[in-house]
Specification:
Elements (H helix, E strand, L loop, with lengths): L1 H22 L3 E4 L5 H10 L9 H10 L3 E8 L2 E10 L4 E8 L8 H14 L6 E2 L7 H9 L22 E11 L15 E5 L5 H12 L12 H8 L4 E8 L2 E9 L5 E9 L8 H14 L5 E7 L6 H7 L3 E11 L1 H4 L7
Parallel strand pairs: 4-5, 10-11
Antiparallel strand pairs: 1-2, 2-3, 3-4, 6-11, 6-12, 7-8, 8-9, 9-10
Amino acid sequence: MTDHGRNGAITQILPSALKQIMNDVLIIRPFIEGDFEAVAALWKSCGLIRTWNDPKQDIASCRSNPTSELFVGLRDDQIVSSVMAGNDGHRGVVYYVASAPQHQGKGYAKQMIRHAEDWLNGRGVWKVNLMIRDDNEKARGFYNAIGYEEEARINMSRRLERASKDQQLECIITYLQMHEPPTRPAPLAPARNIAMLRSEKPNVGFYRYLYESVGAGWLWYERRVIDDDALAALVIDPQVEIFVLYVGGTPAGYFELSLREMPEIELAYFGLLPEFIGQGLGSFLLRQAIDQAWSHNPERLWVHTCNFDHPDALAVYQRAGFEPYDQQTTTVDDPRILRPDLDWT
């Protein structure tokens, strides 16, 4: 009878304990468009934002770098924690480790760190470095508790001069999406000698030719300044689809779909070579991209454009069925001044 009573008590306790465990488990995923306001508010509440750090620029820089990622932790569909992880080419680094004040003490920060460590380790990183201000005893104690050790090192830094205001540009980014495929008939090919071919494993030289030929006039530069290995890791990926439009056997344009965040698909890059603009090929190529994306049955297809793109880009996307859902304005250094060595013709 005594044992039976003890087992009954355990039966009553288990659901409560299990519920507590479940409540302390986060859903962790990469940052996606639309998360910015929540993440910025989280960082502000945790005292992570400094006057010299622009969260928008930090996030944009992280997301444009193939060796870094920003992760968010969710509870009840609300962002309550974050971590930024990256590989500097020698060691792993973590930044922006945050846990909302009302949720601190639940182990969320530790879960985010472990997730970042697993992500880095999966990319061949075997050691993680981090920096803590010498007066931040709370953070120091936290990292000591989860296995980080203090090393005898001298941390040195130097702030580099940023472009002056007359060397900066206002960038207005518009995000567009569609939740179902278009019902309008696809436009007919504007010429008979057109071919659309998938480049399944493009070599870096060919991809650079497409990216630079299509994008130089619209200030595309992020993928022009990374090395060949990093670029290959981005484009030779089973979750990336690159299709090239040929006219008369000559490359005329391309589009690139990212399936990395399925069930959502991003139309990451799309455009024509300058000499093929104005021939009715843009709408045809865009519809090819849209139809290819919807062949995977995503929940959402999205794209972003900005005021550096072709003046008609926003209207073309809208005519194809995309609808704007967000707009952000930021200031960026003019890449033509920062990298005069690149051909900006």
